[in-house]
Amino acid sequence: MALGGTVAGGRHRVKVSKVRLDGRALASAAIAAAFLATALVTSPAPAQAITRGQIIARAKSWIAKRIPYSQRRYHGGYRQDCSGFVSMAWGLRRSITSRTISSVSRRISIASLKPGDAVWKPGHVSIFGGWKNRSRREYYALEQTTWGSHAMRRVRTIPSNGRAYRYKRLTAPAPRPVATRPATTVATAPSTETTVSAGGAVAASARD
Predict the structure, then answer these.
(1) Of 70, 101, 158, 173, which has the maximum CB count within 10 A?
(2) 48 — phi, psi (to 5°)?
């Protein structure tokens, strides 16, 4: 498509140069615009500080909805596989992989695990939901597992080659305000003292 011509304006004529619009360029621009619009709608919210309670609540939201496992599909901007599940629970900007989880977290000891942390083994990662017993060998995993399954809570054993990770932007919840009671005044009866005069008379006087 070409545009051109001469525009008359009083005594002056302005020549408009020809502009060719390539059909392929227009198509590419349209695709790019559509992709950007989709990304703006489906992209996860920017990463921000999050509490353990919020992490567990976000994880349970997928479990309640029984979000199916998939390495290709997305829900709420997050990939529906194990690492996408952890990314969603932690409130990351995008879905990481089990190989790149260390880029947004720090490694901790297995004994230090607390709800909201992540348990990793080669090829899989899950949200730690708490210990099942005092031996600390089994734990409650909140996770996406494999094809044909969905987000769930299940009991897992800490793998021999497992690692524990804690999200870098984990924060403590705001302290609850301490309820105070108004001061109360307790009325007490005045005390009395008894005196005996030289004549034997008994007199009682009040003391503050």
Answers:
(1) 101
(2) -150, 170
Place of tokens 């009083």: 10
Please state, in angstroms and rounded to a whole number, the distance separating the CA atoms of residues 95 and 81.
Answer: 9
Buried b or exposed e, range 62-82, using 16+ CB within 10 angstroms: bbeeebebeeeeebbbbbbbb
How far apart (Å, rounded) are the C-alpha atoms in residues 81 and 71?
5
For residue 121 the two structure tokens come to 């083994």
**124, 182, 181: which is closest to 157 by C-alpha?**
124
Q: H/E element holding 3?
A: strand 2-9
176 residue type, one letter: R
State the pTM of this model. 0.64
Q: What is the pLDDT of residues 15-26, one digit of tens each?
A: 444 434 455 655
- Pick from 104, 18, 91: nearest CA to 51: 91
